[in-house]
Amino acid sequence: MKKILVLSDIHFPTNLKNFPMGKISKYINDVDIIFGLGDYDSPLGLDYLYCFDKEVFAVSGNMDDYSVKQNLSAILTVNIEELNIGLIHGWGAPFGLRDKIRNSFSNVDVICYGHTHSPYLKKENEIFFLIQAVYVEENQVLEF
Q: Average pLDDT in the 46-65 region?
């Protein structure tokens, strides 16, 4: 079974002065794939995801630099081990966000998204919703 590290809202260097390489590195040996769910803010924040020598699937977020948005789709669907997984960042107010996100996809089993800065895992209307499994803040890692 493939293991996936889900990251979102790193906001480097806007909110974080240093990329949290050490904090992410402690998880990286146990995973096969990285999902980047946007709001890296800068191209460098995105580039760091590729330093770990893992397969990376990434989408852009609402706060990303124009050059990041130019190079990444805002929505991506990937198939991993017979699961269709939708990747998206999210936008706007949190109220009704999952409904807006759900309507962005067809035929997915799981939707991974960010934007809210809060971990979440729940099945709604036959779709699992997952917000970042690991959320990195300045001095802590919140695991889900």
A: 94
